[in-house]
Design goal:
Elements lengths: L15 H11 L8 E7 L2 E7 L8 E6 L2 E6 L20 E6 L4 E9 L2 E8 L15
Antiparallel strand pairs: 1-2, 2-7, 3-4, 4-5, 6-7
C-alpha cells in the first residue's frame, strides 16, 4: 500500500506547496516564548507572545515568503549584575507562523510584557469564469 501525500491528492490541484509549508511549520517545536492565537473577528486574528524583559528595540517582526517571523535578542548586560537565581529567561528566540494567502499583518503593539500582532484576512471576490469548449 502506498502512502498518498496531502499535496498529491488528485482533487487538490496546485496545492503541492501546502505540504511543504506544513512540514516547515511542524519543525518549530521550541516552546519559548509562550504565545496565544485568538480570533478577534471573522476575518481577524491576534497573536500574543509573552516577551517579559524584552524592549521594543530588542524585537524584530518580519514577513518572509508568507511566513511571519518574530525574533528577539536582548543586549548583553554588563558584568556588574550578580544573580543569586535567574529564572526569567533572556535568551534569544525566533518564532515563526505560516500565513495563508490573503492574511496580512495589520499592526503590532506591546504592553505589559506582551507583544500583540494583529492579522487580517482580506476576503477575495468570487470570480465566475465561463470556459468555451474548443475556443482559444
Amino acid at each position: 500500500m502506498t502512502k498518498l501525500s496531502f499535496g498529491a491528492h488528485p482533487f487538490l490541484l496546485g496545492f503541492e506547496q501546502l505540504e511543504r509549508l506544513v512540514e516547515r511549520t511542524a519543525k518549530t517545536t521550541e516552546g519559548y516564548p509562550p504565545y496565544n492565537i485568538e480570533a478577534t473577528s471573522e476575518n481577524a486574528y491576534r497573536i500574543t507572545l509573552a516577551v517579559a524583559g524584552f524592549r521594543e528595540e530588542d524585537l524584530a517582526i518580519t514577513v518572509e515568503d508568507r511566513q511571519l517571523v518574530v525574533r528577539g535578542r536582548q543586549a548583553e548586560e554588563g558584568a556588574e549584575r550578580v544573580f543569586l537565581h535567574r529564572g526569567i529567561a533572556s535568551r534569544a528566540f525566533q518564532r515563526s507562523f505560516v500565513l495563508a494567502d490573503g492574511v496580512e499583518v495589520a499592526g503590532a503593539d506591546m504592553e505589559h510584557g506582551l507583544l500583540h500582532i494583529d492579522l487580517r484576512r482580506s476576503v477575495p471576490e468570487t470570480v465566475v469564469q465561463t470556459i468555451r469548449i474548443g475556443g482559444q
